[in-house]
Amino acid sequence: MTAETAPNLADLTLAGVGPGLTLVTGPNGAGKSTAARAWAAHVAGARLLSAESQQAFYEAQLAADEGNFQQGADTSRRVRELVGEAGREHPLFAAFRLEPLWERHYRQLSTGEARKVLLLEAVLAAPPLLILDDPFDGLDRPACAELAAAMVHAAERLPVVVVTGAFRAEELPFAPEAVREVVAVAGRRVSYRGSVAGYLARTAGEGSRRAPPPVEMGSWYEPLDPEVPLVQLVDGCVRYGEQLVFEHLDFTVRAGAHTLIEGPNGSGKSTLLEMLTGDHAQAYSNDLHLFGRRRGSGETVWDIKKNVGVVSARLHRDYRVGGSVEEVVLSGLFDSIGLYQQPATSHRARARAWLDWLELGLMPSAAFRDLSFGQQRLVLIARAAIKVPPLVVMDEPTSGLDADNRRRVLDLVASLCTQRKSTVLMVTHRDDERDWWRQHIAGSILSLR
Amino acid sequence: MSRQNYFNTLTMAQKLDQLGRCRFMDRSEFSNGVEKLKGKKVVIVGCGAQGLNQGLNMRDSGLDITYALRADAIEQKRVSYTNATSNGFKVGTYEQLIPTADLVCNLAPDKQHADVVSKVMPLMKKGACLAYSHGFNIVEEGQQIRKDLTVVMVAPKCPGTKVHKEYKRGFGVPTLIAVHRENDPNGDGLEIAKAYAAATGGDRAGVLESSFVAEVKSDLMGEQTILCGMLQTGSLLCFDRMVALGIDRGYASKLVQFGWETITESLKQGGITLMMDRLSNPAKLKAFDLAEELRAMMRPLFKKHQDDIITGAFSTTMMKDWDAGDVNLLGWRAATNDTSFERTPAGDVKIGEQEYYDHAVLMVAMVKAGVELAFECMVEVGMKPESAYYESLHETPLIANLISRKKLYEMNKVISDTAEYGCYLFSHAAVPLLKEWVAKQPADVIGKAYAPGTQQVDNRRLLVVNQAIEGHPVEKVGATLRGYMTAMKQIAVGG
User: Fold this and answer.
1) Which of A70, A318, A342 sits opposite B413 (nearest CB)?
2) Cβ <8 Å between A340 and B171
3) Per the CB < 8 Å rule, is B39 touching A298?
4) Residues of A with Cβ-Cβ distance to B162 under 8 angstroms
5) β-pairing, A189-194 with A130-133?
6) DSSP string, B179-195
């Protein structure tokens, strides 16, 4: 197929397709999610689940929350109200280990937990077409396997479309024969339709050369005393009312002690990291030293943030302001969401270098909000790295990225770790990233339960 | 407590001076940051939306924050207690914490102020500072504060949750500060208020230096007329008219519930001028004419509300109702919940963003007339255009957002009791006043697209109307103040 004759993505009709599992794949920014939204809009009753729809659901819960204004507690819906007794009896309920969350309010769920609840709810609804945009994102390993099995099961009765970034053979969570068809897209057009084997044969050996990240532009800040631990948490404890996230947690990070953090959804990985980035209120009620200073001893949150670069699902969720991709990258120098200070010319040069590294093919003035989820994530990763700070916190940084871009981000992590100015804390659920970490990073692994 | 309206004790010259205080402060005036409060004990009384979120900001700015709650709130682990402790704050009783405080922030609900202040004041150490975020207690109830205490106000012009959300982004919300002229024994009240504003991040978004009197009188006027009163009146009348015209009830309910928020989004960005520009030219001319009629009909009512606020008649009446167990307030609340707009859920129909303008020319006219009248009345009694702008146009989108969440119920629940009382008072006069006139309006100004006999537009008339819209004083000051905000952001980043 040539570019001229290839069907436009939006014209690809999925209406009326019978039961079965279809994989739609392609690089970040190819138009996968846009097409998924268009298909969902064309089939009456179709259900679409994506990072965006999860975000929209979260915002709706936030808006409905009277506690927001009234001095009340969280009034977002509880898990039991969302999935009901029918949900409790569904095999996925046990497989996703949702029982302990039965009485939990939606807004108190971790990213992975919320994903599971919404997935279960969508499967229960048995819609005429179920589209899942990057459903494995943010799920721990057992949940991925359970979800893949659930999709194969659901696809026996209804059409299931799974949208996922370009993948390699070892990354496919399904048995190849379980997939009826792979639809590969590029540049908003269909570039391939056929079997998994055909797709893999076509893409074998692909993988472009990637430029190294511009970390040599140097750290933004004076080096800290290497003898003082960056992080020192003693007997750490976080709880929300009766709900305990973790307790008796000792966690020390010395300069250069790169650490991979793993653990099931809801084990407190993100909570722990938010304590270190100035984003968690209970940091103040813990015995926590950051960069040599006791938290709550008169330092400002900006004193902490200036030493940290962060990317996480929460930051991505909260980054809801207008502005260009260049401004978003620049905002990393000021630790703000949105840009409120006049950047210097040298700041701009730095931001351009980081944008070039991403190879997004976008103007620096492109609107951040118009980007796909994966492209936004890449820009936020550049934002986290631009100052090459003493502490880099990457909470599932490759979420929503295709295989090529995932490697690009892992290159960055490796560069940051080896150029000795930054210490990296990274969370992942992926086996391949864990293996990669063991092979390439001189660091340790922390498992939370 | 015996009440003596503070404003009424002032001389005419003092009244005018206090009402006319409003100055947009320069960023350089905040170069000392939070220094004045560094290392001082800040105790916040009350942990609702404002209390919690202001405290979160101040702590993130490096200040020492604790919460003083009533003993029963702590024992019974009420919401205020949970709010504070789950955010890692230390909590204590008044007796435990107030005597140690250098700054006490009274962020309890307005109605409890007299009670809270009378309990807190005897416990405060000599020379400490008492801060408010709303001056009703000082100005209307005439609370007398011990002469050794400094009394200041720091009032973020946003709901509490937004106060912290904007801070975390690295920005802030517009904030009004003031020093009570009767309580500034050391002459450093303004320095304390500035440090407090800086600690909440208000200095990044723009600070107005005002007075307790100007804040209270403008706040009361804005909330009971354009903000809550006009939107409630418009909601009830527009819905009923559409139903009478045979328009689907679900559609009518949705158009009103979400229409205010959609329409006022352009108000937020570009004032009345941009809101009117969202209409086609023929519809804009029609909206202008409708607004002129509305202005003529409602002007006496707006003036009466402004007069009652200035003389204190409004607060006297309302406080009588407080003393009588809120009999009027509760009755009106029940009656509002029983209206047919309130009881008709929004239909499951799609209404496009532009359609909210095109099908609601009358609602656009109501917003225009209400904003302009409230602004004019405030300026006529001696308030500065800057004060009047914030209390009318600036806050309208915030209240419209509440209606889109859960209609009038939500609005009246979230706003203060004072605003709710004033809203009912206004709408009980405005609904009968406008009812007959609205009943004559055709569907093409409410519910359907405007369809005049001819789409032809007289250029000369359009020019005159455009000039009249842009030339209104609220548009002039609005453009300047929105310009400051943009300049502060350097690169405008819309939230």
Assistant:
1) A70
2) yes
3) yes
4) none
5) unpaired
6) E-TT--TTS-HHHHHHH
* Amino acid making up residue A315: L
What pLDDT does residue A68 have?
Answer: 44
Q: Which residue has the higher pLDDT, B485 or A103?
A: A103
Cβ contact A340–B170 (<8 Å): yes
Q: Round the average pLDDT of chain A to a whole number and report it.
A: 86
How much is the ipTM here?
Answer: 0.81
Tokens of A396: 């599932």
For residues A401 and A165, the answer to whether their CB atoms sit within 8 Å is yes
> How far apart, in whole angstroms, are the C-alpha atoms of residue B478 and residue B272?
9
Q: Taking CB atoms and an 8 Å cutoff, what residues of chain B touch A296?
A: 59
Q: Tell me what pLDDT residue A13 has.
A: 60
**Nearest residue in A to B407, CA atom:** A64
Decide the pairing of beta strands A181-186 and B150-156.
Answer: unpaired
Q: Considering only CA atoms, which of A163, A164, A160 is closest in space to residue A122?
A: A160
* Mean of per-residue pLDDT scores for chain B: 93
User: What are the residues facing A164 on neighbouring strands?
Assistant: A25
**In degrees to the nearest 10, what's the CA dihedral of A250, A254, A258, A263?**
10
Identify the CA nearest to A428 among candidates A418, A419, A441, B476. A441
Distance CA B488, CA A396 (A): 34
- Residues from chain A contacting residue B47 (CB–CB below 8 Å): 71
pLDDT tens-digit series, residues A319-366: 988 789 999 999 999 999 999 888 889 899 999 999 999 998 889 999
CA-only gyration radius of chain B, Å:
23
Sign of the C-alpha dihedral computed for residues A371, A374, A376 and A382 taken in this order: negative
Distance from CA of A320 to the nearest CA of B (A): 7
Q: Which residues of chain B have pLDDT under 50?
A: 490-495
A124 — pLDDT class (breaks 50, 70, 90)? confident
- Give the torsion through C-alpha atoms of B197, B200, B201, B206, to 10 deg: -40
Q: Which of residues 148-207 of A touch B (CB under 8 A)?
A: none
Supply the pLDDT for residue A9. Answer: 60
Q: Which chain B residue lies closest to A301 (C-alpha atoms)? A: B60
Is B344 touching A (CB cutoff 8 A)?
Answer: no
Contact: A340, B489; criterion CB under 8 Å: yes
Contact B62 A299 (CB under 8 A): yes
Average pLDDT over residues A1-18: 54
Q: Positive or negative CA dihedral for B441, B442, B447, B449?
A: negative
Three-state secondary-structure class, residue B178: strand
Portion 332-361 of A in contact with B at CB < 8 A:
334-342
- Our CA-based measurement puts residue B199 at a distance from the nearest CA of chain A, in whole angstroms, of 10
In chain B, what residues touch A338 (CB-CB under 8 Å)?
A: 169-171, 489, 493, 495
Q: What is the DSSP letter of B392?
A: I
Q: Residue B407 CB: number of other CB atoms within 10 A? A: 24
Å from B63 to nearest chain A CA? 6
Instruction: Tell me, yes or no, if A64 comes closer than 8 A to chain B by beta carbon.
Output: yes
- Nearest partner of B186 among B213, B214, B151, B211, judged by Cα: B151
In this structure, is the dihedral angle defined by the CA atoms of residues A328, A333, A336 and A339, taken in order, positive or negative?
Answer: negative
B61 to chain A, any CB pair closer than 8 A? The answer is: yes
| Enzyme catalytic residues of B | 134
Residue A16 scores a pLDDT above 60: no
pTM for the full model?
A: 0.85
* SS3 of residue B24 by DSSP: strand
